[in-house]
Amino acid sequence: MVTIKDVAKEAEVSIATVSRVINGSTQVSEEKRKRVLKAMQKLGYKPRPFSRKNSKLFGTIGVVVPNLRAYHYPNILTGIYEKAFSKGYDVMVALARDKPVREKEILDEYFNRKVDGVLVCTLKCDEHFMQKFIDSGIPIVGVDYPVEEVHIDSVNIDNVMGAYAAIRYLHNKGHRKVFYIPGTQNVYASRDRKKGILKYLRRHKEVEVFMSKITGFEPEDGYKAILEHITPPIKVTAIFCANDYVALGAIKALNELGIKVPEDISIMGFDDSPFASFMIPALTTVCQPREEMGALATQLLIERLESGKHTIYRNVVLPTKIVERESVRTVER
Description:
CATH architecture of the largest domain: 3-Layer(aba) Sandwich
CATH superfamily of the largest domain: Response regulator
Helix content: 40-55%
Order of helices and strands: HHHEHEHEHEEHEHEHEHEEHEE
Largest sheet: 6 strands, parallel
Radius of gyration: 24 Å
CATH class of the largest domain: Alpha Beta
Strand order of the largest sheet: 2-1-3-4-5-11
């Protein structure tokens, strides 16, 4: 195991100098700092930050997000920023670009930098990679990221009941044959929503849900799914989409096929995106409180930072609600 002494020897400096570089001290020349960093990289040395429990906070929170496309993570970030700034903390954001390797790189960078705690959004890498933060006393909170084996706080959406409620809503409107365009199955939310649908189907045998072979979260996924599966004569009366972007593409395809919404077929989204109420027709959808999720996760993190207590870990699951607009009609049973 590489130690700080090994780094000092490789860089030809004292152990104190290496320690100052690790802790960001300005009392080190640029030449020595570069030598130390080069030695750390060469030897693969990963310094463990000191425990923050009884130390002065730096006032910075690190955030890892997979991407900033569309509205989901930007909305979560809005909640994070507002809560953090109201409590006197700055926010450092890094994009993982949906790559597990990049997630690990970012977490390594945060581990070695002076951040007080970390918020991780929908990680794809092994959750055990976060264990070193826990061992070093650095609080970490999962956002839109359910954890199973590591002990951290988390804030999530109830995707199971969100999808369950969507199918129940369509059923109550008289729809018994529904076409579902799911998100990609490597995302936990997609798996949970499928669980919610299957849960409803087990209790209501009269309802049928047909799953699209084409999956995803982009408009083109909805567009392609409709062209692939929905051909006259139409066998379903409603379409449920993974998110509002997918519904956007689906409606475009339906228009090209001459199928009117909601007169010929109803359609429902998930998210309650900023543009949902401006679609034609205005989109009925499942609302998930994204900004609230970001704000609450930040609050949990700050409470851990400022209390310094090992309280029980909290897994907060926020409810969804259906926002009824114009894209779903009632059909006679």
